[in-house]
Amino acid sequence: GAGVSQSPRYKVAKRGQDVALRCDPISGHVSLFWYQQALGQGPEFLTYFQNEAQLDKSGLPSDRFFAERPEGSVSTLKIQRTQQEDSAVYLCASSFERNRAISGNTIYFGEGSWLTVV
Amino acid sequence: KQEVTQIPAALSVPEGENLVLNCSFTDSAIYNLQWFRQDPGKGLTSLLLIQSSQREQTSGRLNASLDKSSGRSTLYIAASQPGDSATYLCAVPSGGYQKVTFGTGTKLQVIP
User: Fold this and answer.
1) Is B53 helix (H, G, I), strand (E, B) or coil?
2) Across A47-55, average pLDDT
């Protein structure tokens, strides 16, 4: 596609509910990132994929968070048993670069999935 | 751990003014620095990327400079317009090529 596409754009979940957020990166982009952005803050790194391999998941805040990219294109971020502190915008980004994601090539962000846990 | 700070947190200027946004980072061993723009309810749009070997980059009315040794970058916006109103974020690689640390942003309002 023309850009990074994320769905749903908005999600309201009851506390304890599981949610799944989808990211369609730009076609051919090797690198894919998930970031979490709380209100009034900059994005915080969650996890990074190079094709289907999850090379870095050090930013995932708890074991309730799980991400996958099984075929090296579409990625899903899953949050189990959502808590109110999970309320944030979840941003997906992709880059053509293989392992120097931001050193030479621009990374492209989607518009985010806005999660509110009530 | 890389920490990125942006000053000011918010800025309001009349249309036509030139302005400077500041970004500082604690670990100067960076490969590059990138400035993004974020409009309300939207994702991030890349504005400028400066490699560590460069001192500045220009795109239209935007000019970004980088001083690695002092851990600082500035984004200069010339002849500001109401359409420039947005949050501006700087970002640097942190702990590896793929992990990026963002500042908290400067929210700019340009008044017509």
Assistant:
1) coil
2) 93
